[in-house]
Amino acid sequence: MFIRNLLFIFIMASSMSAHAVSNDYVTYGYNLLQQQFVDFTDKHAKCSETGKKERISDSSIKQLKALPAIAAEGLGFLSIVAINECSQPELSELMRVLLTLEDLNRSANVSYISDYILTIKKVAFIKFDLYSQKRFDALPIDIRNILLSMEDIKKPFNVMDTYDRTWGEAQK
Prior knowledge:
By secondary structure, the protein is mainly alpha-helical. The chain has 9 helices and no strands. The chain has helices spanning about 1-20, 25-55, 60-65, 70-85, 90-110, 110-125, 125-135, 140-150, 160-165.
């Protein structure tokens, strides 16, 4: 049943893309993308601001202190993950509209739309995310599992405050 439904969706999508893309759809998609980008950036800013104000609990700090200082390398990535989770569903909607419009625009080839899509990709999906994920993934599995199990860092939190309270100069 699942495969049949998937095949049906694929056939419908293929037949729709075989027709010339109407400028109405591209224009609508562009306007929708602009609105989704505003919605996402507003939500992302609120989540980031919340994170700056949120201090993780003393019990979580105690748990972090039991870990080697290398665990600090995972905090940046987990902060990004928490902000992205907080930014839902706006982030998912932005990605959905962006990818759909990008596909539609392959046929229409409207340069200002291509430029706008590229700009959003550069702003919303920065390379830093990948760098910090690589550092997180390089941590020993036991440290990653402990960090991932901590409820306080599943929502936006103040990374600098957490680091200072755990491994900062005042802790030495």
